Amino acid sequence: MRFSGTETYVATPDLTAAVNAAVVLERPLLVKGEPGTGKTVLAEEIAKGLNAPLIVWNIKSTTKAQQGLYEYDAVSRLRDSQLGDPRVSEIGNYIRRGKLWEAFTAPERPVLLIDEIDKADIEFPNDLLTELDRMEFHVYETGETVKAVRRPIVIITSNNEKELPDAFLRRCFFHYIKFPDSETLQRIVGVHYPGIKHRLVEEALRTFLAMREVPGIKKKPSTSELLDWLKLLVSEDIAPETLREQDGRKLIPPLHGALLKNEQDVSLFEKLAFMMRRDQRGG
Predict the structure, then answer these.
(1) Whose CA is closest to 103, among 156, 67, 137, 55?
(2) Contact between residue 254 and residue 238 where contact means Cβ atoms under 8 Å apart
(3) What is the CA radius of gyration of the chain?
(4) Is 43 in contact with 56 (CB distance < 8 Å)?
(5) Where would I find the AAA+ ATPase domain in this sequence (predicted)?
(6) Whole-angstrom Cα distance, residue 194 to residue 107?
(7) pTM summary value
(8) Which comes out higher in pLDDT, residue 247 or 94?
(9) Which of helix, strand or coil describes residue 216?
């Protein structure tokens, strides 16, 4: 069982090596990288590439580790007891299984994605240490112990919003997805838009990469935003020559709303365009 990428996901050699190392070691793969570099999609593609079911646990700021195991709905049980519902005699009727329980008891070895773990409270990762190590947990209300039928492939993503505890990091195999270089970006574009004109891609990439290097930009456009932008360029039949023009009026590319996602960055490029026009008039 080895991952080598898929037809719809360009995986670099270091990324595939990290995935396969985590599988061999039976440790969670902790994936970091800029937003939009394909961290979440990686888990989907691993599941696809290994023909395994995918279980997704989306983490929010209010998420607690216990929710990944199970939740006991005591309020519903109390209400039903007051109404004389016969279901109250079986406490299991009020146990809601979490994503880890679902992954531990899956009929096939699943891929479990714990997405954006750094959104949760700082204690969240530590609260999962024992369960991820032993692949089992105890249900106190019923007295049963849930053990993994087969160890799931665990992918954990982080956007570095919070530092993760050392004890948690020791139990993971770590990989940082670097922002793709120009050649890799061309391959990614080719996978998503196989029939797109080469010149348009060439000019779009040149503009896109130049925008990422502008000093002071608050949010650099990501790979996913590049793909959105290219889709719009094709839809609006924007010529490659339009992107090549570099006078002050064209410094901000057409349909830039797909790339610039806040008013500070739009203002920055507008100021740069103004300065360029002023310099051109002065010359």
Answers:
(1) 55
(2) yes
(3) 24
(4) yes
(5) 25-183
(6) 37
(7) 0.86
(8) 94
(9) coil
Overall average pLDDT of the 43-51 stretch: 93
What is the token pair recorded at 94? 């009020």
CA–CA separation, 180 and 162 (whole Å): 24
Cite the DSSP H helix spans in the chain. Answer: 13-25, 39-49, 65-69, 74-82, 99-104, 124-127, 129-134, 166-170, 182-192, 198-212, 223-235, 240-244, 263-282
Task: Determine if residue 221 is left, alpha or beta; phi over 0 gives left, psi from -120 to 50 gives alpha, anything else beta.
Answer: beta
Q: Is residue 245 pLDDT above 70, yes or no?
A: no
Arithmetic mean of pLDDT, 30-58: 93
Contact 115, 55 (CB under 8 A): no
Backbone phi and psi for residue 35, each to the nearest 5 degrees, phi listed first: -55, 135
Residue 24 pLDDT > 70:
yes
Q: Which two tokens stand for residue 35?
A: 């937003």
The reported pLDDT for the residue numbered 85 is: 77
Q: Evaluate whether 110 touches 153 at the Cβ level (below 8 Å).
A: yes
Q: What SS3 class is residue 142? A: coil
Cα–Cα distance measured from residue 238 to residue 219, given in angstroms and rounded to the nearest whole number:
24
Question: CA-to-CA distance for 224 and 221, rounded, in angstroms?
Answer: 8
Q: Tokens 């990428």 map to which residue?
A: 5
Share the mean pLDDT of the chain.
90
What are the C-alpha distances in Å from 174 to residues 14, 22, 155? 11, 9, 10
Q: What's the CA gap between 55 and 47, in Å, rounded? A: 9
| 195 vs 7: CA distance, rounded Å | 15
Six-digit token string for 160 = 């570095």
